[in-house]
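hey so i finally got around to running the thing on that chain from the lab meeting. sorry it took forever, my laptop kept dying and i had to restart like 3 times. anyway pasting the input first so we r on the same page abt which one it is
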Amino acid sequence: MMRSAALIVGFLLGGLVVAAAQQDIQSALQKANAGDPAAQVKVGMMYAIGMGVPRNSQEAIKWLKKAADQGYADGEYRLGGMYDVGHGVDQDPATAVKYYMLAAKQKDVNAEYRLGQMYEQGRGVEKNEAEAAKWYTAAAQPGRVSAPQGRPEAEYRLGEMHEQGIGVKQDYAMALKWYKQAAAQKRPEAQYKMGYMYENGYGVPENTTEAIKWYKLASAQGYAYAHQALIALEK
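ok and heres what got predicted. didnt touch it at all, straight out
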């Protein structure tokens, strides 16, 4: 239950600001009833989280499906999320993958990232780490409205996959590249990995000073592993 609740928040959080800005539910409903898919997604999210209206999972599904049926990528992605966690519908990873795929084909970065996870975990599809890497790579590409520099979680996971040789050939230089991109977006786990790579000379010449710099950045964000690494280096 705790996991499902956390996932629901993750799927819907991106729409909270949008929904909060829409103070008049009647205005949103009017646009949604007129067939506006963006408004349908807003209304669906408002019902899903109970913002401005009583929480109603069935109404949420109804409106998200209306948007998805019009081929609206964000509606497809969010409907997939509802099936993924079983919110308002029976949990159905295969149907979740179906909707994620529809959105991903329109280059929805969130759907691409979720597909990477589904393939990596074997949820709703046969486990395929190479396919997971493909979708993470798509999600890591820059130039998207919702992730102009690429989705940092995808960049970080690609770094891990290249470091460990999961779904791709082991390549420390590529791992460093992806970690650096995620670290530039202030992901503390990626900053920690940058320190780790410099400390151990993986994909880059060993450099303790540079390692400390990255560990400090991650530690400043409360990343415990980085704090521990700093203590070890400074002994």
